[in-house]
Amino acid sequence: MTRNIPKRAVALAVLSVLFVYSLTNPLPTNAATDEEGNPLVEAASSRLHTRQDAASTKEALAIQNAFVQVAETTAQAVVTIGAEGKIPVGDTYSQFFFGGPSWAEVRGLGSGVIIDKRGYVLTNDHVIEILTQKVPVRIGGKRTAVTVGKVASDIQVTLPEGRSFPAEVQGRDRLLDIALLKLKGIEGNDLPVAKLGDSSKVHVGHLALAMGNPYGGYQYLDSPQPTVTDGIVSALNRTFPSDDERRSYGGLIQTSAAINRGNSGGPLVNIQGEVIGINTAIFSTSQGSEGIGFAIPINRVKARLDNLIAGEEIKYGYLGIEPAEIDPIKVKRLGLDIPRGVVVKWLAPGEGADKAGLKEGDIVVKLGDIGIVNSAQLVDILANTPVGETIEITVVRDGKRLTRKAAIGGATKEYVPWPWD
Hints:
Layout: H1 7-24, H2 40-72, E1 78-89, H3 92-97, E2 102-116, E3 120-123, E4 129-139, E5 142-151, E6 154-158, E7 164-173, E8 178-183, E9 207-212, H4 217-220, E10 227-240, E11 249-255, E12 267-269, E13 275-282, E14 293-297, H5 298-310, E15 315-318, E16 321-325, H6 328-333, E17 342-347, H7 352-355, E18 363-367, E19 370-371, H8 375-383, E20 390-397, E21 400-407, E22 409-412
């Protein structure tokens, strides 16, 4: 009698035999491994990670080499500036009864950058002033206090490799806070020169290197070699407040590169080693760098360079507007949709704004395509607009927006001289 075996049982038996066979006789591994015996999938993954690591290392080395290149070239044109002179000391009583002030020697230190083989050095104007002081004056029949500055009588410029030269002030732009020095006795000397870049091409996120001699490195560290710190361009068109009414800090480049005391006047450079700004100020609660530094865009300096070299008075863009800060309470009461702007407090007769048809009480909300935030920004934009250009002004008058075109005039700024020379 023949016994019929179900097909399902046969299939299960065959699968069981195959399973046991696979456990006792594993498949050959040479088809699934590389030459070193590593599984092909793992080997491929390992090679992928190796290539990625190599690419990352290559990119990092490229950036590092770029930093080194900048340090070996541009940094060699960064100088230490020593400014010395005498300042009056003592109180008013002793000055009155004992024949005037007594004098003390003062020395300040800052940084600068050589921009021309003829020996021209850019720095901050405040670097060459060894003392600033408020003095009472009468302007237009009113008593007020203005800032005066004592310029150093002896300025020494030291290069990174140790050469030192006396320097004289060739030109000053107090409003921009820029001074141009001219080295003396450089005949026969080959000077390193930094290349000036184009600050209009600077964008937020670009790498930036700040150079200079923090805390007077030459004096305290016994080395004229500048430091190089890295960061990025954090913001553009920043306005920085100043208690010195002679200065206007607007349109600045903000950077996270460390800038400390003594870095003033040194260059802010891009990864190509081009100067894109002059380090000027920091925001700090500790008197040291907190990653909020500011530099004057180099294009603003270049616009003044010919005047500075010629030793000429700087003419600033002028419309004849006396601005005042907007009153948000008044704006709200009038029902105006103006979050920011500047009120025209007074107009100079016959000047650009007057000829363009502006009126006292107008609220300036735009110059060109730039929204106006405060008076300092308005003054800064006008001062740095070339004389003779036409600018479009948007104002709000009686709740309506009006646009006018005005020609930029030129005006020199008068300063009260140091009274104790």
